[in-house]
Amino acid sequence: PAPADPGPAAPESPQPTPPVVVVPSLPGGAVNDPAGAKSYASGRLPAYGWGQDQFPCLVRLWTKESNWLTTATNTYSGAYGIAQALPPGKYASAGSDWLTSYRTQVDWGLGYIRDRYGSPCAAWDHSVGRNWY
After folding, report:
1. Where do runs of H (alpha helix) occur along the chain?
2. Degrees (nearest 5) of the Cα angle 25, 29, 35?
3. What residue spans define the domains of the chain?
4. Which of 37, 55, 103, 122 has a CB 3.0–4.6 Å from the CB of 117, allowing a cystine?
5. How confident is the model over 116-125, as pLDDT tens digits?
């Protein structure tokens, strides 16, 4: 005997559309400068009470998150920038140029790490264990 006809397939439910962050084009060139962002972050560590021993952890963390790109966007979550702020507007507390300035994003990200984890190495440990920070 022939297998029973299962009938028409149920329509697939639509998948949620990930948020899209539009980054304006800027006169004067690219906004992504990973080397500049790393150099700036390294120099800012003492302002947050950390030594250079924390820098390798920060490099690993933000390389994993954004590859140190100011315009990095997670198309699934909508997280944005070097520190992958979610929602991206959180960066505004560090400066109005948050869409394009690695300095503003680094400052906000270092403050977030200090307030939530205490140090870049603690944030990295959390990221390794949970795949987010």
Report:
1. 34-44, 55-66, 102-116, 120-130
2. 115
3. 44-130
4. 122
5. 999 999 999 9
**What is d(CA 91, CA 63) in angstroms, rounded to the nearest whole number?**
18
Q: What is the number of other CB atoms lying within 10 angstroms of the CB of residue 78?
A: 16
Instruction: Tell me the C-alpha distance between 45 and 57, whole Å.
Output: 12
Two structure tokens written together for 97: 């140029």
**Cα(58)–Cα(41) distance, integer angstroms:** 9
Q: How many CA atoms lie within 13 A of 92 on its CB side?
A: 5
Closest CA to 36 of 81, 70, 61: 70
The reported pTM is 0.78
Q: pLDDT for 26-75, tens place per residue?
A: 434 448 999 999 999 999 999 999 999 999 999 999 999 999 999 999 99
The amino acid at 6: P
For residue 71, what are its two tokens? Answer: 């315009």
